[in-house]
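Standup notes
- DV: blocked on the single-chain target, sequence here:
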Amino acid sequence: MKKRALISVSDKSGVVEFARTLEEMGYEILSTGGTKNVLHENGINVIGVDDITGFPEILEGRVKTLHPSIHGGLLAKHDNEAHKAQLEEQNITPIDLVCVNLYPFQQTIAKPNVTVEEAIENIDIGGPTMLRAAAKNHQYVTVVVDALDYDGVLTQLKEAGEVSMENRRKLAAKVFRHTAAYDAHIAEYVTEVSGEEEPERMTFTYELKQTLRYGENPHQKAAFYRQPLGSEFSVSMARQLHGKELSYNNINDANAALQIVKEFSEPAAVAVKHMNPCGVGVGETIEVAFRKAYEADATSIFGGIVALNRVVDKETAKMLHEIFLEIIIAPAFTDEAMEILTSKKNIRLLTIPFESAKKTEKKLTSVEGGLLVQEDDVFTFENADIRVATKREPTEEEWAAMKLGWKVVKHVKSNAIVLTNKEMTIGVGAGQMNRVGAAKIALEQAGEKAAGSAMASDAFFPMDDTVEAAAKAGVTAIIQPGGSIRDEDSIKKADEYGITMVLTGVRHFKH
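- DV (later): unblocked, structure below
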C-alpha cells in the first residue's frame, strides 16, 4: 500500500519541493484549498481531501478536514488489528505524514487597525486538530509544523525509509509547543478585547531569541526568550550593530537603562550598573546630557550600560570611547560615531526605535511556584496630585530638579533616595532596609554637591530623620509621596530648616 502524506499549509515556503520529493518517494499527496492549487500548478499529482471524505468544503472553508475519513487515518494505530479492521470496514486509509501550518493569527493581530472580525476569521480550527491528532499518534505518524524541518525529514526518509521514533517524538513535541503558543495568542487577544482584566488563568508565550553562555553567574544555565508581539522598544527587539553577544546581566541592565531613559523627552543619557542608575543627565544636546551623566558618578559608570535618547554623533562618541562601557543603546549612530566606537572590538552597540517607547506591557515576576502580574508603573509627575506642604514654595530651579529626581527615583531599588540638580543626578541611595540609610548613601556620594540640591524619595518618610540629614547636607527641596501618619513631623522639620517639600500622593516602590 502506498504511504500517504497530508499537506495543508498557510506558509507555503518550500512546500512544493517538499511535496515533490515525497511524491518521488512514492507518497500519495492529499491536500486542500490553496495548498492543493499550488501543488497542482507545479505538476504534483494531488488528491483533494473532499475526494477522500466525499464531502465538499463548506462554510467558506471553515469545514473541510474535520471528518472521520481524515482523523481515522491520523489516529489509527498501524499495528493494532482492531484498528486495522475498523479502517478497512470504513474504507479509511492510514495517513503516514502530516505537514500543516496554521492560519496567520499572530501576523493578523499585529496589523494596525485590525478588526475583531478579521482576527476571529484567522483562528484555525482544522489545522490544530490535525496537528494534535498526528502528534498524539507520533508512534506511527510523522508530523511537520515547521518548514525548517523539511530537509531533515526528507533526509531520514531517503536514508532509512522512515523517520526515527526519536525524531518523530521531537517533531510531535514541537507541534504541541506550537499549538499551545497559537492558542495562547488567541486566548490573550480575545481576553483583551473582551475586557477581562483578571482572568482565572493567564497564558503567555515566548520564542527563543538566543541561548546565553550562562546566567547571573557562570554556574547557572540561561536563555533569552522574546514576546512575539511585545514592544519594539525592548532589548529583545534591539538591533545589534557591533560587539560580542549579550549576556544575562547585560540584558537585565540594558532593560533597566531603557526604562529610565524613556521617561525623558528632552536629550537624556542614563548610565546603569546592576540595574540601578549610577548617573542620569539631561541637556540641550545629547553630548551635554552624556557629560552630565558621566559627571554624576565617574567611578561607577566604568563597565556600565549607557542609554541615550538621541542619535549618537561624533563628539558624543569621542566621550563614550574614552570610558570602558559594556553597551551603548541609542536610536542610531552616525557613520563617524560608528567609526570611533567600533574600534573597540567587544563593546555592544544597539539601536532601538524610540518612537515605540510609549507602549506598555504587563510586568511579570516569577516567584517559587508562581507568577506575579502587574501593570507597568507609568504614573508620571503630570499625573500626580502635587501639593506644596511647606511654607516655602519651590523656585523654578528646584521644580526642575525635583521633576528630574521624581523620574529617576521610581527606577531605583527600594528603599530609594535620589539627589539631583536641574541637569543631573548627584547622589543615589538604592536598596536599603531603611530610608535614612538610603539617604545617607546618596548624601555621602553627593558630598559638597548636595548643597542646594533636591531630594526625591520613592516612598514616604516614616520619621523626620531623613529630612534632618538632608537639611544638614544643604538640600533645599524634597519631593516625596507623603502618606505617613507622621507626615507633619517631616513637614515641620522642613519648615524649621527652610526646605520646600512637595507631596505627590503616589509612591514608587521597586523591589
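- Follow-up: The longest helix spans residues 165-194.
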